Amino acid sequence: MVETLKTSRLITSAAGCSVFLCFVCLCLCNAAEEDSCSTPCTNITVLAPAGPPGPKGAMGPRGLRGRWGIHQQADRGKSRPGPAGEKGARGARGKKGDPGAAGSPGVKGHKGEPGSAGAKGDRGEPGMPCTEGSNCNTVSDTVAGASFVAFSATLRVRILNAPENTIVTFDIVHTNVGNAYNKTSGKFAPQVSGYYMLTYTGMTTSVVGSAYWSRLKKNGEEIVSLYDRSNGDHISSCNSAILQLQPGDEVWVELDGRSSMWSDPGGYVSFSGFLIHPDFMMKITVLVALLLVLRTFAALETDQGGVCSRQLNNSQNITVVAAPGAKGEPGTEGPHGAKGEPGERAPRGAPGKLGPVGPAGEKGDKGVQGPAGEKGAPGPSPPAPPVVAFSAVRTTKLEKPSSHTVLTYDVILSNVGGAYNQETGKFVATVGGVYFFTFTAMTPSVPNVNYYVRLMKNGAKMVSLYENNGGSPQHQSSCNSAILQLQPGDEVWVQLWSGYSLYSDGSRYLTFSGFLIAAQTDT
After folding, report:
1. What whole-number distance in Å separates Cα of residue 319 and Cα of residue 306?
2. CB-hemisphere CA count at 13 Å for 278?
3. What does CATH list as the number for 389-519?
């Protein structure tokens, strides 16, 4: 408190002195200006503590424009920037910005070198079985080293009042191994020579009197036919043939004019085929011809017996050497010659006979495995499998025979292996094994007529066909098939029962076909 009072007094004394000194200075100033010291000083300025600020004054007039700096740009009226300052310290890293818009794709680079082969992967799980309607064309195009061809397709929609010579396009393809079937054109055109089994079906609409007439054609030639006429319900049938085909051949199903055929995605109307046997004979024929050509250009053929020799080359020069004469008489013994000089030492003789085998020593350690040997020459090819297949058609009708009759077929479409006898109508197996057989039948267009046909094996009934066309005069047809195991000499035929009738004509409605599926092997 005492210190505070002292400080206040000192401040007051200092203020008083300041006032006094200011007063003296003002008086001296005034006296100097008036050149007289007698005039009293009336202007007194007292320094007091500052009061509160007054109100803001009005803005003064604008000052004069200053002069340009030393770095003036006279031509542009602007000053140039001064010298750059020193580089400051690096600031903190900013936040990651948003990604920019994608740029245009660059030029495609050169193809890189192939990488090294990776390690073999683990074996995959077994695949799922192929289901109906799915694409099952994952079968390899080769089976046991030979090309394989097979297809199966169905018609999706019905055909009504078809124009003349309408090719049926079976547009639902279930199988097409070898890609020989074209669903756009409806034609089957294999690239592998051989014997093919081809089969197709048909179905009428349910309109009374509606009918279809379909034909299986090869390169435009009619092979076999189908005909059915509706009695107010759907009626279906089938036919088949075994044909020898070469690359460039085409096979298709064709409808006659005004034919109507029923089908839907259920697949009532179908067209299928597969390769039974590749045509090995054609390859063998080419090989034999090549060997004959090589034989023609043989260089020399000589008889080693000394009686005669013959020389043959490309220019056909022939040299004949006569036989030697008879053996002459032995001559007289000549005089003894002089003693000869000692000869050179003979080489060392051959080693003597081996002595008896000594006792076996102890088994040594297993040696290091040696390097792999060179690849051996290919072994002999297995013999070609036997080929047996036939297809025959009948072009005439047969009416009510008095006894059971073996059907004979007058047109042979194929008969590789020669097992079918056209005169007797019987197939006689030449190779033991498993066979497939199929046959067809058709009623005449007479009311209340029927047929009864059976497939026979050595006189025993295997499978049968029966059809009755009712009271309407129309044809009715059908087909049946069987797989039989045969031994060499077994006979198979189609037999019509007595009192029944069958119809056919040049369109070839009646057919009989078969082929060897697998030959019997000796165990």
Report:
1. 14
2. 15
3. 2.60.120.40
